[in-house]
Amino acid sequence: MSLSSPAAFVLPQLESIPWLVHGFGTKRLKERDLAAMPELARFRRVSLKQVHSDIVRIVKTSSPEGPEGDALLTDQEGILLIIKTADCLPLILVDKNKVSIAAVHCGWRGTRKRLVQKVVRAMQEFFGSVPQDLLVGMGPCISRGCYEVGEDVYVDFIQAGWHDKGFHKHPYRQGKYFLDLKEVNRLQLLESGVSKEHIFSLDFCTHCEDAFLSFRRDRKTRGRMMNFVGISPYDRV
How far apart are CA 224 and CA 187, in angstroms? Predict the structure, then answer.
């Protein structure tokens, strides 16, 4: 996929679902653009005050907007779930059988708290989802080669019960590691029963590619990219 990009990228494996709309935004995509898209005109947009937590929010028609948390779930038509990122990993989970979706913001803190596993359990509890049936889309995030963390982060994961998979020692900087956010979340999904054949990824590095916003590269920026998913109120079959 080329970076002579649209304002947002889609995954073909998810785009083929007739009732689903989704996108992983570049820095070109603004909230006003979502409002202007004809296919999103009938959606109510819902986002979170993201706090790098393991808090999962279930969204119903009457749900308040803007609560704290880092994952949104719904089985309601016409609700657009929005997650904002600038190096963190955006995840979309889709259950075609139960017609339910989730949008997840995975930074290292949420990943350490196994947020994505809690999302899978919540989809089982609230929607009756079967993990093996879930489809997962991973959006652009900072890549392993660009995501240097200190020993404190490594120790934090180990003390939380995580093995060292996804961490790689820095070749010449003592006490430094490279963290592979996608790999750790992929492993957590597999542990939760999601099929490896159902995990799809857009393998762009937000730190390397100027089409994206990067907190680590552009420390002064407060901008975030918008990633969205919704159940269409008019194309569902």
Answer: 26
User: For residue 4, is pLDDT > 70?
Assistant: no
The domain that holds 85 is classified in CATH as 3.60.140.10
Give the domain range for residue 69: 8-141+199-231
- Residue 130 is assigned to a structural domain of this protein: yes
Phi, psi of 185, deg, nearest 5: -70, -35
The tens digit of pLDDT for each residue in 76-107 reads: 999 999 999 999 999 999 999 999 999 999 99
d(CA 118, CA 58): 12
Tokens at 195, concatenated: 């099929």
**CA–CA distance, 70 with 52 (Å, rounded to integer):** 6
Q: From 226, 230, 229, 228, select the one nearest 25 (Cα to Cα).
A: 226
**Alpha-carbon distances of 76 from 62, 87, 169, 203, 204, rounded to whole Å:** 11, 29, 44, 30, 31
What percent of the chain has a predicted confidence (pLDDT) above 90? 81
Give the chain's domain count.
1
The answer to whether residue 165 sits within a structural domain is no
Helix or strand (DSSP H, E) at 28: none
pLDDT, tens digit (0-9, with 9 covering 90-100), for 181-201? 999 999 999 999 999 999 999
Domain assignment of residue 183, yes or no: no
In a domain, 106, yes or no: yes
Q: What is the pTM of this model?
A: 0.94
